[in-house]
Design brief:
116 residues; 4-stranded antiparallel sheet
Length: 116
């Protein structure tokens, strides 16, 4: 069983930065690739980025590439999403996930609102 808890969301202005955290309660954190997704109002949940098990590789959606950075800290069982140059289109609930062979574990999400 894996429990994921996101934090760090809030209300910011366009151009600001924000760092989200996702704390995982799991014995073998390094066994999981970790991902970030987001869902804006009345839109489908979309992929933001992913980091490999050991943190050596990352991949991002084109919409955030160059602005967002994912990292992980094994000692704290935590994955981060550093978001820079935020714009109103980044407003969404952000979720972290841990893919498995049968599906994925998901956190409850954290709201990010970017005002213009």
């Amino acid at each position: 069983q894996v429990t994921l808890v996101e934090s760090g969301g809030g209300l910011v202005q366009a151009g600001d930065s924000l760092r989200l955290s996702c704390a995982a309660s799991v014995r073998s954190f390094s066994s999981y690739q970790m991902g970030w997704f987001r869902q804006a109002p009345e839109k489908e949940r979309e992929f933001v980025g992913v980091i490999s098990r050991r943190g050596s590789m990352t991949s991002y959606a084109d919409s955030v590439k160059g602005r967002f950075t994912i990292s992980r800290e094994s000692a704290k069982n935590t994955v981060y999403l550093q978001m820079n140059s935020l714009n109103p289109e980044d407003t969404a609930v952000y979720y972290c996930n841990a893919p498995t062979t049968w599906g994925a574990y998901w956190g409850q999400g954290t709201q990010v609102t970017v005002s213009s």
